[in-house]
Amino acid sequence: MHVSIIDYGMGNLRSVQKAFEKSGCTAGIVTSAQAVDDARALVLPGVGAFRKCFENLDRLGLISSIVSSIRSGKPFLGICLGLQILFSDSEEFGSCPGLDVIKGRVVRFPAEQRDSGGRLLKIPHMGWNVLSVRKQAPHLSGIEAGAHFYFVHSYYVAPDDPAVIATTTGYGAEFVSSIWKDNIFACQFHPEKSQAVGLQLLKNFTSFADRA
Amino acid sequence: MLAKRIIPCLDVKDGRVVKGVNFVNLRDAGDPVDNARFYDAEGADELVFLDITASHERRDIILEVVERTAAEVFMPVTVGGGIRDLDDIRNLLNAGADKVSINTAAVNKPDFVRAAAEKFGSQCIVVAVDAKRTRAGSDSESPWEVFIHGGRTPTGIDAVAWARKMETLGSGEILLTSMDRDGTQEGFDLPMTQAISRAVTIPVIASGGVGTMEHLYDGIVQGEADAVLAASIFHYRTHSIREVKQYLHAKGVPVRLV
Description:
- The complex is a heterodimer.
- Chain A is α/β, with parallel strands linked by helices.
- Chain A has helices spanning 13-22, 33-38, 50-59, 63-71, 81-84, 195-211, and strands at 2-6, 26-30, 42-44, 76-79, 87-90, 96-97, 102-108, 125-130, 132-133, 148-153, 155-159, 165-171, 173-181, 184-187.
- Chain A has one domain (2-211): 3-Layer(aba) Sandwich (Rossmann fold), CATH 3.40.50.
- Chain A is 26% helix and 33% strand.
- The radius of gyration of chain A is 16 Å and the shape is globular.
- Chain A starts with a strand and ends with a helix.
- By secondary structure, chain B is α/β, with parallel strands linked by helices.
- Chain B contains 10 helices and 11 strands.
- Chain B has helices spanning 32-42, 60-70, 86-95, 104-108, 111-120, 159-169, 190-199, 213-221, 232-235, 241-250; strands at 5-13, 16-19, 47-51, 77-80, 99-102, 125-133, 144-148, 153-158, 173-178, 204-207, 227-230.
- In chain B, strands 1-3-4-5-6-9-10-11 form an 8-stranded parallel beta barrel, surrounded by 8 helices.
- In chain B, β1 (5-13) and β2 form a beta hairpin.
- Chain B is globular and about 55 Å long.
- The model of chain B has no long low-confidence stretch (mean pLDDT 92).
- Classes of the chains: A alpha/beta, B alpha/beta.
- The interface between A and B is medium-sized, with 36 and 33 residues.
């Protein structure tokens, strides 16, 4: 399997590429609509701001190719912003539209959330946290309950349809840490920064894509 | 629950680790990537490279170190030391660093922090604050003053107010080092750590003075730090990261056990 990682100027795609290579497949960086159309499996990584993510994808003319690739059933992995951008809109900087592939919103962690000891929870939610599995996606096979993944974000997704939720994670309240719907798996955490369990997830995505 | 992070720090000079894992299992104790791999296997939650290369002209060397590390070790890597402009940041991120730590440049030009956060996102901008107790009894907000140039130059800036200002400008995290405690192995400056941690809503990494596992526990529980950084106790193998995590876990601190 060869996976195509979409480069739209939002961060750490080299890390994603190297992590895929380490997990045993080949991975290339793509920047054009044609290359997105031609890809067998797509990965949309990204860190930073939602609005800039949308603007960059728009400016590069990638939006319709990404949306039609996803709708056609092509295996898709979204990471961090690559999860958030799938949603209808985000409350980051007022309100900003997303790709609307998954109905729902992207919302900020509420200020003034406190932990059990009464201390204010820090934002961004930064560091290693665990997943509660709501729906056993093939992407999570072989990953033990209680495994930690690396997160760094201030916003999270709130899907309209809870049936798309694959995992949730606790930070103050429970938030949605990954979704799985048909060919789409997208996660708020960074598998490319989550050591062995992260590489396992990437390997699972490749196997999933192989079977698709 | 979010785990408290345990972060080993490696001082790198001209591409070689000068304060790293002093241990026979490594092929080469001076190779940063060997050290990174070692800490990765032990369960470190992040790595910090502090580039202490004296000359700015030799910065390509740290880029090569970061690139080699990122190809082998899949955890967050922060690089600090000598970061002066947006190009320095871009080059490090492109090489595979996840975050950069800015210290002197933030004091010289606070708007640099804002520009960096706007350009690359707050999630990758760490402001390193080196502070010392200098003004107990004066009318400033706290007794701690910010120092730059590796702790040699006082700035007259109040550390608590400074941390708050850095948050406002877009810093995603504060790396707080006590210059009074650094190298002493007497433990963190706990009142300072707690004061800064309570003053901001971004994560705070405590640094400076760790000599025992209890110091790390105190930094998290009394200092209210979100993460703890140490060099010597890991470097000299006083304790392994795995041992530290088991100790903290047994005392009820949420950690990631590997």
